[in-house]
Design a protein that fits this description.
By secondary structure, the chain is of the alpha/beta class. The protein is built from six helices and three strands; from the N terminus they run H-E-H-H-H-E-H-E-H.
Length: 172
């Protein structure tokens, strides 16, 4: 969502200081229901092929999300997923976007597509920073229980707070 909103803001001349993407889904074409098994012929992202069967991010769950987001008709899903507003890596113009920060998780099937989008933004001349959090799954940012939370989740919160402070107030 953040990726697409950054394009809309640019096109409407709305100044945005930071375009923050946290474990972003920027290309879910490999999640089409007609795809039963991921391989290099239908999915360019190694992380999706490696982690599509892990309990915290199986391909079947991604396909379930798409069903409820885009509807049950396979042909309509395919048409919608070829629209850059649902698949930001297909955007016709990636230039002049706000500074971007992309956060990914090592054991996330969406890791490589998020990092790919970050590289596309950088190649188009945008200022981009990226951080991959090692050893954690897609939803690691939510694992911040005061007594049993993941250290990486707390680090993410601290890093993000520092980034937002520096972006909006210039300290850091």
């Amino acid at each position: 969502m953040s990726a697409v909103l950054a394009h809309f803001a640019r096109d409407e001349h709305v100044a945005i200081k930071l375009h923050l993407m946290i474990v972003p889904a920027t290309d879910m074409r490999y999640c089409r229901r007609r795809i039963e098994r991921l391989d290099e012929s239908n999915c360019p992202y190694e992380s999706a092929r490696l982690y599509c069967n892990l309990p915290w991010g199986p391909l079947g769950r991604e396909q379930w999300f798409l069903k409820y987001w885009l509807g049950d008709d396979d042909d309509e899903q395919e048409k919608l997923l070829d629209d850059w507003r649902l698949t930001p890596v297909l955007a016709p113009d990636l230039s002049n976007l706000p500074p971007a920060h992309v956060v990914t998780a090592e054991f996330d099937l969406e890791r490589d597509e998020g990092e790919h989008y970050g590289r596309l933004l950088r190649d188009a001349g945008n200022r981009v920073s990226m951080k991959r959090h090692a050893g954690v799954p897609h939803a690691f940012t939510h694992y911040n229980h005061p007594e049993r939370g993941l250290a990486r989740s707390f680090q993410f919160i601290e890093d993000t707070a520092q980034l937002l402070r520096a972006t909006h107030y210039g300290d850091g």
